[in-house]
Design goal:
This protein has 290 residues and is α/β, with parallel strands linked by helices. The protein has helices spanning 3-7, 63-66, 69-75, 79-94, 111-118, 130-138, 173-183, 200-204, 214-219, 226-235, 254-276; strands at residues 9-11, 28-29, 33-37, 43-49, 102-105, 123-127, 142-145, 158-164, 184-195, 222-223, 238-243, 282-289. It starts with a helix and ends with a strand.
Length: 290
């Protein structure tokens, strides 16, 4: 990387978003991006080079510069599978006892909104991309333009919030959680799916990992483990209810519950092995607004 390119770097996170410690020397420098691993266990992007006129308009808002029609065309594949996965994730959140309207933060092409509809839930979505908003509107969903730190909804408007691969996109997670807490009613559930910092390929070979390079390196700011995300949530007015997919969903149809019970003897050791071997590329966490 040239000296001029290094000089063009801009600081995107001043200090650790979890413990506020000043940045140490770079843990990983991929050229465009400088990553810091804090003693508290969090990994965050300290600085990055500019990307020209398509730079994101505001922190945490990738906008259409990064999520254009071509991106969504690729992302639209395996729609039925994505909807089915979203349904399981919603059921995870509902296990906390939360009932009421659902918010999908980063609603993309409406997979979670469609899953919520199939479960009989009233739902709304928000996304920074006009492409995503237009697609959701064509499908008849209530989808609005907004970002993690500026949700266009009233206080306490929702009982459930789903954040699927969204939370890693903000350099200011505490501000985002304050906004999320505002739109959730007390006792409301927030479901998170984020990249797993303990994923073996990322932890053993970070220099080659897609987590820290290319499109993901540009769009992502913070990488969490279950421990660091749990700590952050507890400090921001949430109680962590579960980590990783639940094995049994009481709100699921009876046939679905029966299948889960029959599969449980196999799923328990497989889940333990996947965690021990670092095979989880993402982890799921459900928290309740205190």
């Amino acid at each position: 990387m040239s000296a001029a390119a290094y000089a063009s770097r801009r600081v995107v996170i001043e200090s650790c978003p979890l413990c506020a410690a000043p940045p140490q020397r770079a843990w990983l420098d991929t050229g465009p991006f400088e990553w810091v691993r804090c003693d508290c266990g969090l990994v965050y992007k300290r600085s990055e080079t500019g990307s020209g006129p398509d730079d994101r308009a505001s922190p945490g808002d990738a906008g259409d510069g990064h999520y254009d029609p071509a991106y969504f065309e690729r992302y639209a594949r395996r729609r039925r599978r994505r909807i089915a996965k979203s349904r399981r994730q919603i059921l995870d959140a509902l296990e906390t006892g939360a009932q009421g309207r659902l918010l999908d933060v980063g609603c993309s092409l409406g997979y979670t909104l469609e899953a919520a509809r199939s479960l009989g839930l009233d739902a709304a979505g928000v996304d920074a991309s006009s492409v995503a908003i237009a697609q959701c509107a064509r499908l008849g969903f209530d989808a609005r333009s907004g970002t993690l730190d500026a949700l266009p909804f009233d206080d306490g408007a929702f009982a459930v919030a789903i954040l699927k691969h969204v939370f890693e996109h903000t350099p200011a997670p505490r501000a985002a959680l304050a906004e999320l807490r505002r739109v959730l009613r007390p006792g409301g559930a927030a479901f998170f799916a984020v990249p797993h910092l303990g994923y073996r390929r990322a932890s053993q070979s970070p220099q080659r990992s897609r987590f820290f390079r290319g499109e993901a390196g540009r769009a992502h700011f913070v990488y969490y483990s279950p421990q660091t995300l749990s700590r952050l949530l507890e400090e921001e007015g949430f109680r962590v209810a579960s980590v990783h997919p639940r094995l049994l969903h009481r709100r699921a149809p009876f046939v679905h519950q029966l299948a889960e019970v029959l599969a449980m003897p196999l799923r328990i050791p497989l889940r333990s092995a996947a965690e021990a071997l670092g095979l989880r590329k993402e982890f799921w966490l459900t928290a309740v607004r205190k």
